[in-house]
Write the structure tokens for this entry.
Amino acid sequence: MFTSKPIEKIVELFSTLPSIGKKTAQRLVFYILRQDKDFALSLANALIELHEHTLYCSTCFNFTDTDPCIVCSSQTRKSRLICVVEEPQDVTAIEKTREYKGMYHVLHGTLNPLEGIGPNEIKVRELLQRCTTEVEEVILALNASVEAELTIQYIAKLLKPLSITVTRLSRGLPVGTDLEYTDEATLARALEGRVNVQ
Amino acid sequence: MFTSKPIEKIVELFSTLPSIGKKTAQRLVFYILRQDKDFALSLANALIELHEHTLYCSTCFNFTDTDPCIVCSSQTRKSRLICVVEEPQDVTAIEKTREYKGMYHVLHGTLNPLEGIGPNEIKVRELLQRCTTEVEEVILALNASVEAELTIQYIAKLLKPLSITVTRLSRGLPVGTDLEYTDEATLARALEGRVNVQ
């Protein structure tokens, strides 16, 4: 189909990436070809360095280039507050809000008995080890899935004897949504979780 | 925003690619991180080889890894038929139809007086040099834009004295479309270009 093997090869590789189909892959490759050679080289170098210089923080298990990571080694963040998330990209999402100034803990998944993912397959034990008497609150900021719910219940049960406040993200109407277009489940949760008008 | 410089760098680079926003770039990078290190390395190598081993065919100006390219050097394709396209990806699109067995000529753009792109900025002269007495037909398979129209008229005028048949792609209803949802311009062209029922 292509008149050049190197193009064919990289289109093939690009199209294995999530949300990149064959057509998009092709468009990307032709775009890269039209750029300066340096662009392709800097992309190649960044890819080589990516695995080379990325490690897991031994405290929070987020991706980092220094151990402990900049969050865990920060002197200004609240070390008594731990926000538990499923994946490293969730840390980025919460950091973007600029509202949270505590620590993180990345589980790298959720419990999923059907797929054989138990507490030992995700970073639950490591979370427990961090939950010393100094920790005041653990925020379980997991996604809205059945597996996440199971994980929340499991961790909450483990933390109960330690007299640590365990919280979860509130459910309700997303900002800017019309009632009319909100799905029933979300609306039911918003009703259930209604708060006093202050 | 990111807790790792190498991640930040590659997200930055990826998000300069067309149709890749910051969020998609981030998803791609985290996907690559979750794969084997070899995947990132093979992607890096493919990027390095891309420019290294890709050149322009000196006959048709398509991207190729051999000169002349496999189309131009083919013994089975019709050398008397030249299909003129704007960009290398158009060759891929036409090859996919498996209907065309002639040669190609990539212009690398269209005439655009407003942006200062004249005949010397695209491969028009090179096309004329190929249009010897042996060539029977030149198909102008350009996009449906004002600039492409200008380019078609310009090339047709140049080829007229050479007694070469100059054709263009037909305009009409795309396969599988309902009349009801077809835009006026396309419908007008389909009416104008109506053919006898056989």
Summary: Strands of chain B lie at 55-56, 63-64, 78-85, 102-106, 137-140, 165-168. The first strand of chain B starts at residue 55 and ends at 56. Chain B has a mean pLDDT of 91. Residues 37-52 of chain B form the longest helix (16 residues).
